[in-house]
Amino acid sequence: MLKFLSSTAAIAVSLAMPLCAQVQSANADPAGTIPSSYPAVPQAPKAAPNILLVLTDDVGFGAASAFGGPVPTPNLERLAAKGLTYNRFHTTAMCSPTRASLLTGRNSHAVGTGALTDLAMGAPGYTGMMPKSAVTIGEVLRQNGYNTAFFGKHHNVPKGLEGSSPQDYLPNGMGFEYFFGFVGSSTDQWRPTLYRNGVRVTDDRPQPILDQRLADDAIAWIHQQQANAPDKPFFVYYAPGSAHAPHQAPSEWIARFRGRFAQGWEAIREETLTRQIARGLVPKGTKLPEWLADLPRWASLPPQEKQYQERAAETFAGELAFQDAQFGRILAELERMGLRDNTLIVFIEGDNGPDAAASPNGSLAEAGELANRRLSREEHWTLTDRIGGPLVNSNYGSGWALAMATPFPFYKQIASHLGGTRNGMVISWPDRIKDYGLRSQYSHAIDLFPTLLASAGLQAPESANGVAQQPVDGIDLSYSFAQGDSPSQRTVQYYEMLGNRAIFKDGWLAATLPQVKPWEMVSRPGVNLAPTYQWALYDLGKDFNQTRDLARKYPERLAVLKQVFAEQAALYNVNPVNDRTDPVRSNSAARALGKTRDRYEYWGSGLSIPLDAAPPITGRGFTVTAKLGAGEGTIAALGSRLGGWRFAIENGRPAVHHSLTPVPDDLFTLLSPVALTPGQMAEVGFAFDYDGGGYGKGGTVRITIDGKEVANGRLERSISYADPHTESFDIGLDSGVPVLEAPPGSSVFKGSLDKVTVALGPAGQKSGR
């Protein structure tokens, strides 16, 4: 007690002293009574650069003007003018695996990401769960004195854990002090499903389109970082969703390209190759691979289809060009702030080849048209004027995908061919890189991890956070910075994606021939086993773009390379090679890791639950019961106008909306003729009596008030998949893309919403009365 009183008296005396006297007393300390030893704070190596790592989405080698493509990307070209352009850089042919490799420096199967997290399996190379034995570049830099931030797409959360994922799998648990972006393969550009530091952003006021929001946030973060710690380097990972479907852009940017694609996909391909050869991006004499037999020729299309496909290409171009402009804003701000010279910028144009999954016809609801109902050409034509805007989620036809892969064969998913794995890359660092120009060293996404660490004066840790680290598979590319003609240090690299395989060794590439079309991922019957694939052989030293199969000429060499692939597959957990993409595989991880139950209870309003943690009301009967007082708005909603359910109170009356596709005739509405009694609590029920017989079947929709049926209606076909699949199941609002178009803010339930209960019937079976 005396000691406490003495301390209190000392504080009182101190507070009575003039402030200047306190400061002088504290600073002077002539007796040396204040200890001066503090725990060490991580410090980055002297002169370590700021780092900006940019990764765009689904952009093929031949799309951007920086690589000879038809879409002007002046800011990427400006970056390349003071940097290095790599024309033999490779990805994995799909987004989750490429991102896992880029962040960890390890081959994708070695870190459990041999395919999309949406297609995870219970095998070591395919769990979708990145191990702690392979920490990310963000974590290594953070622990070595960098501030770290992540903007944009994060598609490395295990399937089934999206709603309850430990921080280990979210950016804030992977070394990034700040995260603003979306989780999953894609999101709507106009009404995105966003998270900030793990918390859902549900503000539905009008906002700029997503790419602009990401750039705004990145610039603001850099300003704040420099204000707080100007002597500390930063690492920004900037991964916009462009140009993954949905292709959406401001109307004025789409209008810039009106008529620019009227000549068709074959002509665009020829024009791109001419530019690539003229700029030295590909060798002289390079010829285009043959047009794929399952893609239509432009001249064969009817006029309405040409108009539709033109608008789809114009929108893709508008989105990519707009994304380049947003990157340009960040670049300009680094220059204005005097940070540009000592900022190492790596810009990877695409995490894989261009996307052909929309089929030769294209799509207006990517997942919905794969799983719920394919729209006819004629239905597409009726919605042509909506492409690029907020009412559809368009993706161009597969003919455009092949054109955007120029000069290579095939596209995204096809890891056996360069159209799926060859992407353009630019590296610029004015303080260090002085010899600008083309670099043709063979490189891969795994090489960026050691390259960035070496540039910062760091090495990969042997242990991190108490866990021994597995070997880094990447090779430091800084050997290519000063000597453009130095030989490639990477001599072997394997590829595997959904059964498509390849092995590169000493300039040769052995590759399987594709059996599954990307647009058949969900619909195709059966499963092709790995041994049924035929192999081809290419001499990439003489055949830059993989056009001449030499398997019959050199069978012994092919046999050797196939053995090398088998060895690499065993080393990196590639087995079992599996090309399944059906619902059985896509749901296996969600069933194994998630906890499906028969009854879900939600207390209160304003909740957003990721789909894998939400009640799976598709393909089965269900009831949604709400205890509520007077109010208006959404009680519960799943998905969007592209494929979804909405249960609401409208003008005092319960209502159900079900949208199968964006076609207006596919919107089902059931409205109660009986209104709720104003000012009184009520129990409102919505039931779907399912016909059974599998997924996507019909049934009877019923509405009850306090247990009494007040309305029923027949729904002939229900969604088997909510679209977009990054949309959530919402209570008391309809966030992101709505099921029913309404003014901003109007979907929020305004009133008392005490409890919502969802009860499920058996999956795929008959239910109800």
TrEMBL record:
Record domain Sulfatase N-terminal: where: 49-457
Gene3D superfamilies with a match to the protein in the record: 3.30.1120.10, Alkaline Phosphatase, subunit A
SUPFAM superfamilies: Alkaline phosphatase-like
Keywords: Calcium, Hydrolase, Metal-binding, Signal
Coiled coil: none
Stored Pfam families: Sulfatase
Residues in the signal sequence: 1-28
Record flagged with keyword Electron transport: no
EC annotation from Swiss-Prot or TrEMBL: 3.1.6.1
UniProt GO molecular function: arylsulfatase activity
Top-rank taxon: Bacteria
Transmembrane helix keyword on record: no
Family from the record: Belongs to the sulfatase family.
UniProt protein name: Arylsulfatase
Organism: Sphingobium xenophagum
Lineage: Bacteria, Pseudomonadati, Pseudomonadota, Alphaproteobacteria, Sphingomonadales
